[in-house]
Amino acid sequence: MELLILVWRQYRWPFISVMALSLASAALGIGLIAFINQRLIETVDTTVMVLPEFLGLLLLLMVVTLGSQLALTALGHHFVYRLRSEFIKRILDTHVERIEQLGSASLLAGLTSDIRNITIAFVRLPELVQGIILTVGSAAYLAMLSTKMLLVTAIWMAVTIWGGFVLVARVYQHMATLRETEDKLYNDYQTVLEGRKELTLNRERAEQIFQQCYIPDAKEYRHHIIRADTFHLSAVNWSNIMMLGAIGLVFWMANSLGWADTNVAATYSLTLLFLRTPLLSAVGALPTLLTAQVAFNKLNKFALAPYKPDFPQPKAFPDWKTLELRNVVFHYQDNAFSVGPINLTIHRGELLFLIGGNGSGKSTLAMLLTGLYQPQSGTILLDGQPIAAGQPEDYRKLFSAVFTDVWLFDRLLGPQGKPANPALVEKWLEHLKMTHKLELNDGRILNLKLSKGQKKRIALLLALAEERDIILLDEWAADQDPHFRREFYQVLLPLMQEMGKTIFAISHDDHYFIHADRLLEMRNGQLTELTGDERDAASRDAVARTA
């Protein structure tokens, strides 16, 4: 399996050590059976030392078996830790566009359900390994006792294993379908949790979501999990019954066919009884490994960025003067909408406002400008020099942003990831009217349960604390009360400019367009600059232009 091959590649020598311990455990188990056969069945040893020797072998078997299982489990957890960490890092390194295509529900399912299934598989993996090794070792021992009986028993066991695999294959099929259904359920959960207010207001919609979305997905999940469990339990019981049948077969061959004496038959039966638990455990563990392979395949299907362990330090552009988008074009893969060609030159220290109707391409332009989307064609230049396509981090280092779907982090960071400047934080807390509303402890924000407008203010504080040259604000003032909205345009934006910030603000507050150095408009994916009478008209009624 691909999953085990990856473990072998990443942990070859620990894996070899664990296998050696497992072989030693199997050898001790078979040796214990041989001890019972030779000292307690064939020739009864009545000496005093036989019991201490037997107990010593039992203790040694327990220690080595436990050690091999713990070592394999620890190896599995190290692998899962590495897999989870690499998955998170790959998400961090993947283009935002790809993350948006995948959706948070499927990624959360990967981080929770898929990683959990792989973890469970490695918890059960020792049972599978022990079962296989003990079966092979026991077969070698049984061959020494009676080759003919081994051949018949081997055929019987082959039928047992074949039947088990047929049933387990059906388990795998249902598990694969089950994983796809889990994605649907995670999406349903997200709908219920994120849309809770709307669903509370509109009970008809709540019923529609529950009856037509959740219930069919939940029933599909129930169907496949029941079928998977049915085939799994059938495989376990099939193996159980066939193992007991093998014992009867052994005594029939010994007594009816005369292939062996009673002592050999007893040893055969004892060995099969010894194998019964490990073999059943191995059959029981196999579906978890198959489920883990399904989960591993699902993680690989995300097509995230390749794993890189380091976080490269971006190069700064401290003395830039102009930023230019030249013939930049971007189009979405899942629809026909495209933006561009965009031609825009931004001068350091400017305050630019961008207007446009819904779906005009404003947010797409913001993503292109900040380097979060990569253009299909065209060039981004800094002081006339093209930005290297292979190092977008250098360019992104110019920007801090507050998007409409703002996410609040609980720690203030300054340049280079160092603690934020306390004087700057204190100053802007006062400007943002949050001094007595925000609890800070050593740069950590302790109270994030704020109103939407207050969250936007803290997001602006986080952006300013980074001390980057360009700040992008996407409808920042939309969630502010009228008084603070005026404060933002008339006081805060000029203060940012005094700090040397270049500000690119998406806004429809036409009363304040007079404060912008330049007014831009997006319409059907095309960017134009409004000047003269057009700017005056937009400043009187921006809504009319978005109609």
Automatic annotation (TrEMBL):
Family matches, as SMART domains: AAA (SM00382)
Membrane spanning residue stretches: 12-36, 56-80, 125-144, 150-169, 231-253, 273-296
Coiled-coil residues: none
Alphabetized CDD domains for the sequence: ABCC_MRP_Like
Gene Ontology biological process terms from the UniProt entry: peptide transport
Pfam family, one: ABC_tran
Domain ABC transmembrane type-1: 15-291
Membrane protein topology class: Multi-pass membrane protein
Molecular functions (GO terms): ABC-type transporter activity; ATP binding; ATP hydrolysis activity; peptide transmembrane transporter activity
Subcellular location: Cell membrane
Residues annotated as domain ABC transporter: 323-547
GO annotations of cellular component type: plasma membrane
UniProt keyword annotations, A-Z: ATP-binding, Membrane, Nucleotide-binding, Transmembrane, Transmembrane helix
Major localization class: membrane
Protein name: Multidrug ABC transporter permease/ATP-binding protein
